[in-house]
Design brief:
heterodimer; A: alpha/beta; TIM Barrel; eight-stranded parallel sheet; about 20% strand; B: Elongation Factor Tu (Ef-tu), domain 3; Rossmann fold; six-stranded antiparallel β-barrel; about 15% helix
Chain lengths: ~300, ~250
């Protein structure tokens, strides 16, 4: 029998499949389709201290093998996430969940992290210092090693639960940022967030997305994500959650061989709502094909 | 929501740039005002299309060729299959219609009103319909609505067919109505909202990521909070709409 278990910073998951933040809502829409408790965990929609509508629409565009989004961290704010969304989420998902945290200042990151960490269902805090769609925050913390370390230290102080820093690929050297997060006390690294991109409406001669730019996701970015996971695996001793364009069981294994302990599936959930379940069903066969008995054995196997 | 495979029974041009696709498959989840999200080979995002008509075994979609995805749809042939997510969106609520509802459709906003008219008439209501198009060569479904037993008025912006003007110009000529339902481009919805004397429901559209409420790509602000057009809409009530100040 294939062993799919992986352990992320002390938290053992039944399998390495984790729907990525912002592609799975708070779980209950997907729970109408299948039993989402099959999944290792899931990362719910990014939460900020205050409620946010996000950016004006249109904020979605098609690209070759992928999409752009400029949602801009829409969420009801941490207090309503705790009072309204998490009680609904825990009804449909009974394992530990990953809380994704967004912010616009070091203090805000710490405050939101502390509130979410206090909830029993939250097993890991994933701190998003890489949102390309918000101004004066988000990615600006993830593109400077000094700021990344500062945010990491601040969130580290408010909880003993595992902290994964979610990194931006929109940097010259992602290993420098990963090392800064390690120095700041992170328990792990999540990567990659979306790549900055643009589309132009030929008829209107204007960017398709109202915010002008958006984050590119989907299979188009898989090789970029894989390379960055490979590099970060060499640079730090922390476990990695690898993501970026994963679309198949083979992609999951490839990402793990590059160095990921677990994987997140993002954009594919939007076009193929059963993708996570389908990948899980196919994993044992693909493992068998490549002579893998225990999935955790292949973490970093490509090095 | 269900993910289902449908087979194309026909796919024909019915007006300028406008196509009617008939599909066989389980369309039991397709109430008036709901939509399907279909996958097109080689495209990443699905394309949301409103339900024009549906019964247990067939689904009718009317779409306009506006870009590469819909152009590819227009080239699909009989017997080809399509992967659809069905049962999306909230749909029109016919309970609020009163005895004599008015339906106003603009261009590619006309199709979802067809199944709605069918249902309202089946409920014993007197249905008045105003269909608006840019010009004569874009007109479709006038006879189909009449065949249902609806009282139909057609107008064109350039006056090449029916009454000259927009759907709102035709409201005065249809007499009394108890409620309204509308679908069309946003400026039209806004004009209908201002020109109608009763409450009503309007169908909105937006570029969508998923179509089933998880990505927050198509959100809008309403007077009752943030709503996802795909999941909390696409039908919204006139009284809750917060019109954008500039766009």
């Amino acid at each position: 029998m294939a062993d799919l278990k992986v352990t992320l910073a002390g938290l053992t998951l039944d399998n390495p499949l984790i729907p990525a933040s912002g592609t799975f809502g708070y779980g209950y829409e997907m729970a109408e389709l299948y039993d989402i408790n099959l999944l290792g965990s899931f990362s719910f929609k990014g939460t900020t201290a205050a409620p946010r509508f996000g950016n004006p629409t249109p904020r979605i565009a098609e690209t070759a093998s992928g999409m752009l989004n400029a949602v801009g961290l829409q969420n009801p704010g941490v207090d309503r996430v705790l009072s309204d969304e998490l009680p609904r989420l825990t009804e449909v998902f009974h394992k530990k969940v990953i809380a994704n945290v967004g912010g616009f200042s070091v203090e805000e990151y710490a405050e939101t992290t502390a509130k979410l960490a206090a909830h029993d269902a939250v097993g890991i805090l994933e701190v998003n210092i890489s949102c390309p769609n918000v101004h004066d925050g988000g990615m600006s913390f993830g593109t400077s090693a000094k700021a990344a370390e500062e945010v990491t230290r601040a969130v580290r102080r408010v909880t003993d639960k595992p902290i994964f820093m979610k990194l931006s690929p929109n940097v010259t050297d992602i290993t420098e940022i990963a090392r800064a997060c390690e120095a700041g006390g992170a328990d792990g690294i999540s990567l990659i967030n979306t790549l900055m991109g643009m589309r132009i409406d030929l008829a209107r001669r204007r960017p398709l997305i109202k915010n002008r730019t958006g984050g590119l996701s989907g299979p188009a970015i898989f090789p970029v994500a894989l390379r960055m996971v490979y590099d970060v695996y060499r640079a730090v001793k922390l476990p990695i959650i690898g993501m970026g364009g994963i679309a198949s069981a083979e992609d999951v294994i490839e990402m793990m061989m590059a160095g990921a302990t677990a994987t997140q599936i993002g954009a594919m959930n939007l076009v193929d709502p059963y993708i996570c379940r389908d990948i899980l069903e196919k994993l044992p066969d693909v493992m068998k094909r490549y002579g893998i008995e225990r999935l955790s054995d292949i973490i970093g196997a490509a090095h | 929501m269900k993910q289902l495979e449908f087979k194309i029974l026909s796919n024909d041009r019915i007006a300028k740039g406008t196509y009617l696709m008939k599909l066989s498959g389980d369309a039991s989840d397709c109430a008036p005002g709901r939509f399907v999200n279909l996958r097109i080979a080689g495209k990443f995002l699905r394309r949301p299309i409103s339900v024009c008509d549906a019964d247990a075994e067939t689904l009718t979609l009317i779409y306009k060729v506006v870009g590469q995805g819909t152009r590819q749809m227009a080239e699909m042939g009989v017997g080809e299959t399509l992967d659809l997510l069905t049962g999306l969106g909230n749909g029109y609520d016919t309970e609020k219609s009163g005895s004599c509802p008015l339906l106003l459709g603009g261009g590619v906003g006309v199709p979802p009103l067809y199944k709605l008219a069918k249902q309202l008439i089946a409920e014993g209501k007197t249905v008045k319909v105003i269909l608006g198009f840019n010009s004569k060569d874009e007109v479709f479904f006038e006879k189909e609505f009449a065949a249902l037993g609806a009282e139909v008025s057609v107008c064109t912006a350039d006056g090449s067919y029916g009454m000259r003007g927009f759907v709102t110009d035709a409201i005065a000529s249809v007499g009394e109505y108890t409620y309204f339902y509308t679908c069309g481009p946003e400026p039209m919805l806004r004009a209908v909202s201002a020109a109608t004397a009763t409450s009503g429901q309007m169908s909105f559209e937006e570029r969508m990521g998923c179509g089933f409420g998880v990505c927050m790509g198509c959100s809008c602000e309403t007077l009752t909070g943030y709503k996802r057009i795909c999941r909390d809409g696409p039908i919204m009530e006139k009284e809750e709409i917060k019109w954008p100040t500039s766009r």
